[in-house]
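**Sequence, structure tokens**
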Amino acid sequence: MTGKTRISPVVRVAIVLMAVMVVSVSGHDYGDALNKSILFFEGQRSGKLPPSQRMTWRKDSGLRDGAEIGVDLVGGYYDAGDNVKFNFPMAWSTTMLAWSVIEFGEQMGPDFQHAVNATRWATDYFLKATSVPGRVYAQVGEPYGDHNCWERPEDMDTARTPYAVTTQSPGSEVSAEMAAAMAAASLVFWGVDGSYAAKLLSRAQTVFQFADKHRGSYNDSLGSAVCPFYCDFSGYEDELIWGAAWLFKATKAPYYWKYVMENSPNLDYYKLKTINSLPNGGNFAEFGWDSKHAGINVLASQIVMKGHNLTGDFVLNADKFVCSVLPESPTKSVSYSPGGLLFKPGGSNLQHATALSFLLIVYARYLSNANRVVQCGNVKATPDRLIQVARGQVDYILGSNPLNMSYMVGYGEKFPQRIHHRGSSLPSLDQHRQHIGCKDGTPYFESSDPNPNQLTGAIVGGPDFEDRYNNSRADFVHTEPTTYINAPLVGVLAFLKGQPNP
């Protein structure tokens, strides 16, 4: 087609509302999707793989990470389709995995242990990355060299440079997010491995103190190693408050709540920007690896609503988050595609759909427990309505969309076949024992053949704003999977698995 059919704004809004409000009648198997969403993390593992490894086409990789400086930095996750370990998004993904287990672990059934294992794979690595006092390792791998190659992680021969933030070259955002991840994970492990939980919590407190005492952005300290890949655009203040909130939840120490209360007024919730004509919703609806604003408010709202005689604007701001996202809200500031998919500016859009859906589900639970509803102007948002909106996003991802296509690899009959992922797109060591060099993988990247290895459970960046999807490896904005797309969905799927289908 060379042109577009123009639809009036009124009709378009009506179409979007119908698409978002109608839940799937196709009977999605949330349990199957949950299992696969966690399995994906095994495909992203770096380090020595355990005998229990289920995604067997992946093999050991990065076994000498940190050796050049005498520090063991083996382990952790590759964040997306490349072979660099970016600890900032990895830490947020870990926090979300832990939060998913905390909220919904009881609904996970046999996948509970897999979710715990996925969390520990990251926290074991974070303990290594924070083992040297006054130093936090923020990344392993030289990103420009890595991105210039199309190599399996098992073959990578680009520089595995370790990058650290220190007392002299601080990185408060990455340090505080790692502290949040370990604090949240400690809550997961108290009933599983008490000594490990205590170790995580102690380290989280030490790392948070380092992040707060030596303030500064890793944008400045590490420069081109982290920018533009995972440059921190929202500042480090939100990570410090987020880390303190998780430490309060884990310790109940008044110091951390006082920290949250004293520093939260510094967050700017009214900073609006527009990219490609799409509003970004302001920071009331901002939540992901970079900005923690909405997450802080939802997390802290539970603490306030539980009646601990604690105050703050967190419930009010969490309500504003709902009103920023709800399709029928008069103050909605996100966009929806004609097929009903939530959109915010930037790449890998499904990260917004999964992260905000997680917050909707969690806040719905908190509201229900407090016997509250949210009022958005003349629109009343009940907990059931929040769940309905989140379910609509999940159903869209799983195949209830204009293309009838699942955006989770391995789920459903039709799903992405040519994802932007090095390990998945290159033959495994089982099939091709010989080394595949930096540029030797280019023909596989350019091939129109499906990826030879199925990265089961991977959720790609997703369709464009008109619900179209280009199934091409080169279109990384839409075809690359990431840990931070999958992590929030784990909790949402666990919740939906335990609910009756409407």
